[in-house]
Amino acid sequence: MTNPRIAVVSAGLGEPSSTKLLADRLRDATMTALTAHGQHAEPVDIVLRPLAQDIASHMLTHNPSEALDAAIKEVVDAEAIIAVTPTFNMSYSGLFKSFFDVIEEGQLASIPTALGATGGSARHSMVMDTAMRPMFSYLKAQVVPTGVFAASEDWGASGLDRRIAREGQELADLMVAMPRRREADPFDVEGDAFVSFEQMLGHA
Q: For residue 150, how far is the Cα from the chain centroid?
């Protein structure tokens, strides 16, 4: 049996990126908490900055590049998601929103999800409740109670460390207690269970 995968999506625009740093720390906290449960996971980093042009093109043409298609597949097939965005005008970035916009409706349903955001000052911290939670609620993801916002002055502070550890623990607990339930595909029939159209007519 393979380890569950955690898709770690970061939408930072700079290099280096505080958004990617927060995503990495949330990933590490989740992995540590899973280890305490006696479980392991395989993290998959999905950095959106190199995919920006592919995302914009897909929104216009509905024809994803191979790289974007692979990134989307990693997210929708994951057992958990960590999603982190920079904050602009009290909301998520356009790149972050556009990536989740090109994922088909319903494909994130029931996935345990942890949210994070970065910004220049604490006055943007409401982004977690005013923008991110409503979006992922609409997408029917299972979002953990804690959300971590990291302002510039938070880095190196013990309070940020505690919030990261708490959210990582919550995501690990949710992965263990309520693993993602995948709905069976009604058209995915194997072996002798398959009934052809001719057979159905014969039984009519």
A: 18
